[in-house]
Amino acid sequence: MSSIDTETARRVAKLSRIAVPDAALPALAQELSNILNFMEQLNEVDVDGIEPMTSVTPMRLVRREDVVTDGNQQAKVLANAPDAREGFFAVPKVVE
Question: Residue 28, Cβ neighbours under 10 Å: how many?
């Protein structure tokens, strides 16, 4: 079983950009050790021949026909544009 010390917990917190007070480091170290121990328990499970699953209940995804459309929302899309002309976004010329 792996055990994380407070110095390792301090380094993990620093790498994670999480401010952890010194008083909380022993609790963090214990929590990280618990996580690693649980991962070691999971590694002991025999999963040979088991298919990966995406859900605990078998279901079939609803599929729709893939049809290309213009979305019928041109006016809504261009409503907040600072400059729109002839149904398109107008932008300043950047290349001569």
Answer: 19
CA dihedral 31, 37, 43, 46 (to 10 degrees): -110
**Domain coordinates in residue numbering, the chain:** 6-43
Q: For the packed helices 6-15 and 25-43, what is the interaxial angle rounded to 10 degrees?
A: 90
Q: Please report how many Cα atoms fall inside a 13 Å half-sphere around the Cα of residue 38, on the Cβ side.
A: 6
Block mean pLDDT (10 aa), the chain, length 96 = 87 96 96 95 91 81 86 89 92 86
3-state secondary structure of 89: strand
Query: Do the Cβ atoms of 74 and 85 come closer than 8 Å?
Result: no
Q: Which helix (H) or strand (E) holds 84?
A: strand 84-85
H or E element in which residue 14 lies:
helix 6-15
